Amino acid sequence: MIPTIEWSGKYIRMIDQRKIPRKLEWYTCRNYVQVINAIEKMVIRGAPAIGVAAAMGLALGAESIKAHSYDDFKRNFKKIADKMIKARPTAVNLGWAVERMSQLVDKAPNTPLDILKKKLRAEADNILREDIEINRQMGQYGQGLIPGKATVLTHCNAGALATAGYGTALGVIRAAREKGKNVRVIADETRPWLQGLRLTAFELMQDHIPVSVIADNAAGSLMRQKVIDLVITGADRIAANGDVANKIGTYQVAVLARENRIPFYVAAPLSTIDPQKKTGDMIPIEERDPEEIFRFENKQIGPKGIKAINPAFDITPNKYISAIITEKGILRPPFKKKIRELFHSR
Ligand code: MRU
Asked: According to the model, what pLDDT value does residue 346 have?
């Protein structure tokens, strides 16, 4: 699998996910503003991947700061960090990565600036490397939830492309396959960006994992016909009570799963949990350009002058979630208590 994002000399390059599967094209960012732009415009997307991009973007931004004192450097770094954090509001991994990079700056008042810049780049590399390891750990825990033969429904793309590699929800599926389980995937196409059709289908086919795509509105009917054994999705942010923000449409899949007595699992690293948000209602939901709904590949597909509402994420209340798969193990309800214990023991 091609890396989602990597250094290309002193610049950053990422696979342009807007073009997959038609083209596999690198998108090069020569400065931090281009990284912010790439996150906003969905060149790179998926909660853990935008966290990694933000960290690398900050390292790139730090290298361009021409400061003569630590205080001056820190002031400039904070300005870049404040802009980076606003690139997309829902996935907390972005803020988490910015915070981790900022803490490194805060703790290094006596470090020469050229060394500090190198340390920032090394920290961004750590975040990238750790993400892949975490996904593999999640895969190991999560695959235990999948029977020897299973059809798994997933929504959006929570795969290698949404992370530094391997994936969260798709990582669990990959791990089950590596254990020799007979797993096939049904991917919701995931309007309006079609992450399921374009990205999930693409990466699973590359790995020779059987996958079929469905229109989003077919999920309920297939569940009722007992075609689907379980659902696994990723998450963009998880509140302290276990409510989950994920790609728009996740909520209805979870409700349908409950109605049909199908387990609904969420796979996400601890960096996706935001203990500051008591419930899902406190999580900011990104509202994207309405054009994404009624224009397709630069063609207007709705009547001229049509209005659209385009929330990019929704909240699935914790009562619909059977378990949350993390790199530290599987959390079962009641999530509030489990999440509190997990964060207190860290
Ligand atoms: O708008 P996107 O494509 O960034 O949304 C991505 C999702 O909702 C994913 O399910 C989520 O980030 C988890 S990815 C491991």
From this structure: 66
Assess whether 272 and 126 both reside in one domain.
Answer: no
Q: Which of 16, 236, 243, 274 is catalytic?
A: 236
Helix H or strand E encompassing 292: helix 291-294
Q: What is the pLDDT of residues 84-119, one digit of tens each?
A: 999 999 999 999 999 999 999 999 999 999 999 999
pLDDT digits (tens, 9 = 90+) for 219-269: 999 999 999 999 999 999 999 999 999 999 999 999 999 999 999 999 999
The H or E element spanning position 76 is helix 70-85
Residues with CB under 6 A from ligand 1: 45-48, 91, 156, 158, 162-163, 168, 195, 233-236, 246-247, 312
N-terminal to C-terminal alpha carbon distance within the chain = 33
Which residue, judged by its Cα, is nearest atom 6 of ligand 1? 46
Same domain, yes or no: 158 and 223: yes
- CATH code at 261? 3.40.50.10470
Q: Are residues 157 and 227 in the same domain?
A: yes
Q: How far is the CA of 343 from the centre of ligand 1 (A)?
A: 23
What range defines the domain where residue 269 resides?
138-344
Q: Is 72 a catalytic residue?
A: no
The model's pTM is 0.97
CA–centroid distance, residue 110 to ligand 1 (Å): 39
Contacts by 179-182 with C-beta closer than 8 Å and gap 24+?
179/143, 181/143, 181/146, 181/147, 181/148, 181/149, 181/150, 182/148, 182/149, 182/150
The residue among 136, 155, 185 that closes a domain is 136
Atom in ligand 1 nearest the alpha carbon of residue 247: 8
127 and 231 housed in the same domain: no
